[in-house]
Amino acid sequence: MSISPLRVQFKTACELLDVSRESLRHIIRTDATFPRPLKFGDTKQAPVYFDYAELLEWHNSKKQSLVIMEA
Questions:
Q1: 47 three-state secondary structure
Q2: Backbone dihedral angles phi then psi of residue 8, each to the nearest 5 degrees
Q3: Domains and CATH numbers, the chain
Q4: Alpha-carbon Rg of the chain, whole angstroms?
Q5: For residues 9 and 21, is the Cβ–Cβ distance under 8 A?
C-alpha cells in the first residue's frame, strides 16, 4: 500500500507535470480549471503548495478532453 501526499510543493508540481516554473505560472494565470495554489503563511516568501488530488484530477480531465478531441 502506498500513501499519496496530501500536498506538493511548487517545485514538485512542476516535476509531476514536467513543466518549467514559468510554464506552471502561465497555466495558473490562464487556466481557470487549474487548482489554485495554497500559500502557507503571510510573508511574501511563504511556501506555496498544491493539493495532490486536485492536480491529478486536473491532469486526468485534460487527458480526457484530448481523447475526446481526437475521436
A1: coil
A2: -130, 150
A3: 7-70 (1.10.1660)
A4: 13
A5: no
29 band by pLDDT with thresholds 50, 70 and 90: very high
CB 63 within 8 A of CB 70: no
Please report where in the chains the cell 500500500 appears, as a residue.
1
43: which 3 cell numbers? Answer: 510573508
pLDDT value at position 71?
A: 60
Q: Are 58 and 28 a contacting pair, CB within 8 Å?
A: no
Q: Give 15's contacts (C-beta < 8 A, 6+ positions apart).
A: none
Condensed to tens digits (0 to 9), the pLDDT of residues 31-60 reads 999 999 999 899 989 999 999 999 999 999
**What is the residue whose three cell numbers read 494565470?**
29
